[in-house]
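Colleagues,

For the teaching module next term, I've prepared a clean inverse folding example: a structure given as tokens, and then the sequence designed for it. I'd like students to try predicting residues themselves before seeing the answer, so please don't circulate the second half yet.
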């Protein structure tokens, strides 16, 4: 070891004998004055960045941290010397030490981050040479810390972020270095950065977007590459006045770029920036600009994205170098789909613009189908295939009538692809791997979870309603896949150790699965009765609904599971899972859902009562009304097959509450759909249970039937004793 050190020293001496003599003086210094003089000679002989690692270590061994600490905190300097002489020398020494990765994260360096931070904003673009040199050395220290393991975390904990923002915003000396460090911090720790220093980052982003809007040439190109990193989490920009101003600047800047004839190197970053904003804000960000200019930008950027997709995917040559841009274009087309299908009071696009965009998006999605048909089977592991399936899922969720032949041809691949990824995700889930391993990060920073089943569920809901594609889905084994997927998503929803976002996603997936199963139950009853996966699904519904009903905030999923289970009961009533002793809790929960929807409301001006929705139901009635009416009808049909349900109805108080409600409200306040639903339930109860019939009759059932126009109930009560 000594030989190696001596050899290195000899080489260094050969390169810089003056520096070696200074080091000898430094090592032999007897007091502060001698040490200070020697340090001045050392810094004069060589800047920190020019020293090799052995020389830096020799300086540190000779000086340590004690002397730099005294220099940094000294308040006096000799007469005639610059005011910041000692501090400048202290920072220079730290800069020398920080080029060593081990020393850069030493506690004695990390606790100087506040001092280094203050240094960054002590001077503007011109001024005292000593100060400018100290700022440069301070940045050298910060870059050394940044390059060390956990460097970003150390800098953020040290409170550096506001100072870097000020250094850039005020264009202080070396502001380019401030922007470089800021970019690294926000790239690695975006959420923590925005949480810690939103006011300063707000001012920084405002300045960056203003420059993006006004600048031309190379500077605008650099900003186009940089801005995706600095965008805050959604929905900050849409919810704040300063954020809307930033979006206006972004819109104007993007339109200025994309409306010109551009090279790929100019257009690609602009498309990626637009995609990054679209991924966070959908099409809403376009409205930050006035409606006319917003619609022009939306039409322009989506058209360009569609052209890029067609040119790449229809070309026989490989396009690997363009995948990041194409992924960005996919996000822009998804934004276009959203803008064309979303119902708004003030839509961004006029009808003729929508028609034109739908046409070009259809061509782009046709190219995606062609690509998947050609190479998808061979590239099941390719992330680009996954994002292609995601875009196709977004398109088919809104439009299945176009390109029917192509969709039909592609279905076998899509089913195989869903099965492959589902098995992989289930394996990862069982091993409880980090959820980030189940995701693919695109080139502009957004995370698209690797779940093609979820992407395609809305499309499957449409396709399962049409005979030809439904038959193919059945023949390809989709019902079994959907049952397994439903089971997996239920596990995710019940898990306590996953992020809330995963719970929300799982719940939406479960709701859509229920819609697909309902389509199959209604259109393929004989198949449902024969396929074993539906018995397994019924077992899962029987177990899950009572548990779900005890938790708040899941009424839409409760409606889906209740109605699906009741509809399946008509077909599977003879199976063991639906016998009285094993399914009572499910039917109690279903009755609970159905009976609590409507209440009487007193109208103060007339003193009469009117039927209205209870509060929880009113909040989601638009989403569950069809399910509720279908559920009442299905429950009524179940009574004949499972007569013991009548006892549950009586014990639950549903029958009593319904009769009481009809007693206390004005018949005019009840719409015909509700009358029909209640009549079906009351009639079946009267037919299949003497106890229920007696209760209805003693509560004036015939008079109520006549009053509300329930002819079937009136006839039933008249015919039966």
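(Answer key — instructors only)
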């Amino acid at each position: 070891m000594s030989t190696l050190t001596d050899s290195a020293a000899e080489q260094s001496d050969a390169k810089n004998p003056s520096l070696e003599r200074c080091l000898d003086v430094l090592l032999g210094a007897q007091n502060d004055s001698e040490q200070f003089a020697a340090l001045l000679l050392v810094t004069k002989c060589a800047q920190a960045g020019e020293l090799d690692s052995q020389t830096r270590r020799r300086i540190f061994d000779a000086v340590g941290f004690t002397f730099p600490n005294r220099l940094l905190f000294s308040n006096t300097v000799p007469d005639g010397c610059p005011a910041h002489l000692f501090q400048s020398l202290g920072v220079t020494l730290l800069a020398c030490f920080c080029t060593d990765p081990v020393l850069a994260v030493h506690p004695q360096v990390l606790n100087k981050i506040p001092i280094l931070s203050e240094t960054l904003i002590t001077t503007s673009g011109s001024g005292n040479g000593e100060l400018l040199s100290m700022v440069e050395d301070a940045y050298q220290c910060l870059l050394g810390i940044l390059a060390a393991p956990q460097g970003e975390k150390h800098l953020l904990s040290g409170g550096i972020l506001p100072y870097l923002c000020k250094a850039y915003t005020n264009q202080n000396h070396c502001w380019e270095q401030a922007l470089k460090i800021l970019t690294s911090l926000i790239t690695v720790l975006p959420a923590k950065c925005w949480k810690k220093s939103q006011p300063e980052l707000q001012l920084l982003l405002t300045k960056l977007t203003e420059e993006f809007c006004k600048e031309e040439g190379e500077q605008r190109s650099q900003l186009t590459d940089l801005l995706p990193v600095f965008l805050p989490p959604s929905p900050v920009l849409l919810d704040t006045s300063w954020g809307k101003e930033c979006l206006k600047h972004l819109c104007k800047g993007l339109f200025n770029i994309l409306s010109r004839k551009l090279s790929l190197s100019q257009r690609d970053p602009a498309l990626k920036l637009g995609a990054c904003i679209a991924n966070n804000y959908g099409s809403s960000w376009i409205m930050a600009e006035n409606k006319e200019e917003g619609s022009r930008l939306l039409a322009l950027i989506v058209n360009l994205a569609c052209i890029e997709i067609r040119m790449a995917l229809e070309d026989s040559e490989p396009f690997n170098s363009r995948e990041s841009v194409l992924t960005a274009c996919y996000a822009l087309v998804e934004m276009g789909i959203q803008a064309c299908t979303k119902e708004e009071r003030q839509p961004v696009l006029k009808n003729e613009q929508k028609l034109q965009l739908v046409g070009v998006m259809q061509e782009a999605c046709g190219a995606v189908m062609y690509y998947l048909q050609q190479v998808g089977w061979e590239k099941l592991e390719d992330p680009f295939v996954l994002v292609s399936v995601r875009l196709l899922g977004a398109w088919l969720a809104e439009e299945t009538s176009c390109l029917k032949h192509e969709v039909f041809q592609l279905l076998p691949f899509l089913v195989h692809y869903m099965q492959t990824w589902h098995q992989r995700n289930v394996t990862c889930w069982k091993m409880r791997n980090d959820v980030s391993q189940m995701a693919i990060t695109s080139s502009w920073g957004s995370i698209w979870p690797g779940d093609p089943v979820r992407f395609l569920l809305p499309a499957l809901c449409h396709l399962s309603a049409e005979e030809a594609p439904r038959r193919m889905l059945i023949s390809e084994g989709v019902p079994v896949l959907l049952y397994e997927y439903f089971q997996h998503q239920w596990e995710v929803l019940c898990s306590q150790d996953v992020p809330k976002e995963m719970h929300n996603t799982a719940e939406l997936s479960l709701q859509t699965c229920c819609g697909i199963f309902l389509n199959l139950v209604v259109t393929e009853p004989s198949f449902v009765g024969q396929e074993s996966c539906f018995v397994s699904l019924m077992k899962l519904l029987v177990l899950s609904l009572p548990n779900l009903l005890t938790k708040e905030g899941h009424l839409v999923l409760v409606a889906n599971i209740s109605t699906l289970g009741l509809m399946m009961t008509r077909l599977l009533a003879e199976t063991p899972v639906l016998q009285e002793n094993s399914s009572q809790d499910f039917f109690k929960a279903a009755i609970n859902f159905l009976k609590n929807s409507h209440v009487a409301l007193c109208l103060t001006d007339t003193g009469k009562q009117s039927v209205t929705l209870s509060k929880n139901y009113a909040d989601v009635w638009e989403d569950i009304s069809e399910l509720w009416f279908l559920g009442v009808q299905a429950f009524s049909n179940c009574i004949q097959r499972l007569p013991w349900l009548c006892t549950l109805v009586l014990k639950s108080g549903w029958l009593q509450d319904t009769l009481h409600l009809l007693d206390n409200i004005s018949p005019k306040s009840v719409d015909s759909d509700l009358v029909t639903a209640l009549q079906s339930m009351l009639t079946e109860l009267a037919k299949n249970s003497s106890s229920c019939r007696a209760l209805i009759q003693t509560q004036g059932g015939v008079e109520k039937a006549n009053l509300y126009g329930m002819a079937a109930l009136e006839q039933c009560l008249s015919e039966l004793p």
